[in-house]
Sequence to fold (418 residues):
Amino acid sequence: MTTPGLISRIPGTLPALPALRSRNFRLFIIGQLISYTGSWLQTVAQGWLVLQLSNSAFIVGLVTALGALPILLFTLYGGVLADRVNRRKTVMLLQGLLAVEALALAILVVLNHVTVGWIMGLALFTGLVTAFEVPIRQSMVVELTGRESLMNAIALQSSVFNLARVLGPAFAGVIIGLWGVAACFFLNAASFLAVIWGLYRMDLPDSPPAKVTVDVIGAFREGARYVRHERWPRALMILIASTTIFGFSFLAMLPVYARDVLGTDAAGYGVLVSGVGVGALSGALFLAAFGGTLRTRRLALISAAGFGTTLAATAFAPNYWVAFGLLVVVGCSMVLQSISANTLLQQEAPDHLRGRVMGFYSFVVLGMAPFGALQIGWISQHFGTRVAFGLGGSMCVLVAVWVWRGVIVGGRKSAKTA
Fold:
């Protein structure tokens, strides 16, 4: 067994990608690529299935909101547990439960028993599992690579996620056309086995966590005090919350935007989602190679403003291919902001608080998604998807400018008066 935290060098590994020197991280990232691809198959298929069953933009947004509701309620507790449990074993268990959900949805479709109600119930189950899985898995990354390679590891993980965002929707459009949505759900169920296998093969300490009494309230307050009183973590949480509610929710409305605004079908919708993934993959690879030379704090703010501006421009896209090009830029700016914010939070968090900080991060990114999905669904239903995209992008720009004035300009003034 290798010494925990020791990164063994591999001949031929690119100097710009130090995280890949870790065997544990390579196993992790391979499993993530396969699993993320399967998850995108299910995301596209489920969005299209709900739209066919309900013919309602609001219901499409509601299903997304229900999937995120348990995250809003439980992810902070998941962050507390992330500092207490054996992370590898816990993630393996939770990945298995996600596989069961995908398999159940596939069987319901095959038996012709699927309804919007069933999809909502399974979305709630997935959200509950995800509320614990995400903060625990996120806080594992530093154990696999070491703190010095953290930004590279997060960028590579995002690269894999967004490569899957390109592959999954493109495959989904073809698979739905050939075999139907059930095939996407079956493939997603199988994809979780890759993550479980990779975790099983890792060389990590397997000793049980210390048996201590978990003071949930006290642990939560300790993490909350850190986030509330530290200037940059507080600013980042505000920035992330605004893009989650007003910006990232555009993904929930892409099926409606594709069909009702651009007049395309499931294959065309899949290409649009892939366009977001192409841009996001490009941004993630750029940060993986050159992130160490950039000012991460400024990048988080500038990319948030750029994301909002481009999303607002997408509302006025005159045709399919202009919309595709704008969505590529949206994906790029979206991932630049996400990676830079995630890296800053993990780098600055004390080791004993990292799980709780990532719990707050997951709470904001995933737990507040119901509000975003509901607001964009309601606006799309009553005023149109173009209006929803335009308003959402504009709000992201306004908040980014406000945060910039608070932490950059305000910080300079404080330094001068000190």
Notes: The chain has one domain: 18-202+214-412. The chain has a mean pLDDT of 82.
